[in-house]
Design brief:
Distance between the termini: 52 Å
Order of helices and strands: EHEHEHEHEHEHEHEHHHHEEEHHHHH
CATH superfamily of the domain at 7-151: NAD(P)-binding Rossmann-like Domain
Bound molecules: nicotinamide-adenine-dinucleotide, magnesium ion
Oligomer: single chain
CATH class of the domain at 7-151: Alpha Beta
Strand order of the largest sheet: 4-3-2-1-5-6-7
Length: 395
């Protein structure tokens, strides 16, 4: 990255929860950031409004049917307009870009992230699924290209902030904190028929639908465990999860002398987004400040691995290695969609994921193309399973 503090940014997924908050950060810091590229899946209206405000070099809309809605009005402003999945990969190579914020959801993030790394762009990584699926290949490519991966996920940003200035001190252990989501304290039976509208009510964070369901099912924390392994080069046994319902301590690092460092603050994704985009600088902000009078106690509990089996499945996938986390991720993406569409009960999701992990062919050292094949094979397997044994959610 250029030594100057001015960064030229591409946002993949600018219309989502992380994308719009990143634009809030950029809007508040025009001297530090320039938007070069904005992309969205299918929200053409918001993408158009963002483009007219931030005047990027180019925009990409994933859904090709929406191209016509954008092109004339943005061409007039001198903004290039592209569409489709290939354009998403091509656009990250643009010379002007210093850093690519990956804020799109799911496996779809893998290819553009790899292309950005190969083009020598630094990555501000929100799209955790990329590292879950292909952490070994992605981190190896980043090392080879001298590219930094700055975590945006609040827990990983916390670890990164605790490690700043400590990079030569080995880590003994990290504790990822979890809010526990809307179903914390409930039994497996109580959550079995939970409705999408209840699972979508996260107590502390406003996020996109997929990650909100992942938080309710604890899969989000499982994905974050695998994400942490690759980001910080840790062994499985060095990563632990602790439930902290107030979401004030965002994660903890324990060093070899037993000392623990934690990063804390109100739950607000703008802070980790800004830290990732401006690193190593801490830019001033007017984000709401933590007030001790509002939090008389910060509490901690063990996660319930029985009620939330997804967490155990993610640890299991990490131990197996190879394409096992890719299978876990693809199966999860399909069951979350099915749950949201009321085709699958909440409590059935881990069963289907476990079945996929035991059924889709294991590959110990997959190539990038084999990850794509595994993803596709898993999706087909899981869709067929759901169709063959329908167990719709209770109304
Ligand atoms: P979201 O659903 O709110 O937004 C997703 C964005 O990606 C949208 O702009 C959408 O148009 C675009 N998109 C989705 N699928 C696409 C595809 N196939 N091709 C191109 N564009 C596509 O999601 P979000 O909550 O902002 O989450 C984004 C990522 O950040 C996820 O990987 C999530 O796990 C991670 N993350 C989110 C939060 C949060 O607070 N929202 C916190 C930590 C990590
Ligand atoms: Mg997180």
């Amino acid at each position: 990255m250029k030594q100057s503090t001015h960064r030229h940014i591409a946002i993949l997924g600018s219309t989502g929860s992380i994308g719009t908050q990143a634009l809030d950060v950029i809007r508040a810091n025009p001297d530090h950031f320039t938007v070069e590229v904005l992309t969205a899946g299918s929200n053409a209206d918001l993408l158009r409004a963002q483009a007219l405000e931030f005047k990027p070099n180019a925009v990409v809309i994933g859904n090709e049917a929406k191209y016509a809605e954008l092109k004339d009005v943005l061409f007039e402003e001198g903004i290039k307009v592209y569409c489709g999945a290939d354009a998403l990969c091509d656009v990250v190579e643009m010379e002007e870009i210093d850093i690519v914020l990956t804020a799109l959801v799911g496996f779809a993030g893998l290819r553009p992230t790899m292309r950005a790394i190969e083009a020598g762009k630094h990555i501000a990584l929100a799209n955790k699924e990329t590292l879950v699926v292909a952490g070994e290949l992605v981190t190896a490519a980043a090392r080879e290209k001298g590219v930094n991966i700055y975590p945006v996920d609040s827990e990983h940003s916390a670890i990164f902030q605790c490690l700043t200035g400590e990079f030569h001190n080995p880590v003994e252990k990290i504790y990822l904190t979890a809010s526990g989501g809307p179903f914390r304290g409930k039994t497996k039976e109580e959550v079995y028929h939970a409705r999408p509208e209840d699972a979508l009510k996260h107590p502390n964070w406003e996020m996109g639908a997929k990650i909100t369901i992942d938080s309710a099912s604890m899969m989000n924390k499982g994905l974050e465990v695998i994400e942490a392994k690759w980001l910080f080069g840790l062994k499985s046994e060095q990563i632990d999860v602790i439930v902290h319902p107030q979401s004030i301590i965002h994660s903890i690092v324990q060093f070899q002398d037993g000392s623990m460092k934690a990063q804390m603050g109100l739950p607000d994704m703008k802070l980790p987004i800004q830290y990732a985009l401006a690193y190593p600088q801490r830019l001033p902000s007017d984000f709401p400040r933590f007030d001790f009078r509002n939090f008389a106690s910060l509490t901690f509990e063990q996660p319930d691995y029985e009620a939330f089996k997804n967490l155990s499945l993610a640890f299991e996938a990490m131990h197996r290695g190879g394409n096992a986390p890719c299978i876990l991720n693809a199966a999860n993406e399909i069951v979350v969609r099915a749950f949201l569409d009321k085709e699958l009960p909440f409590g059935k999701m881990p069963e289907v994921i476990e079945d996929a992990m035991n059924s889709v062919a294991f590959i110990a050292k997959p190539t990038l193309e084999q990850y794509f094949e595994t993803d596709e094979a898993t999706r087909t397997y899981v869709r067929n399973k759901i169709k063959a044994a329908p167990e719709p959610a209770k109304p």
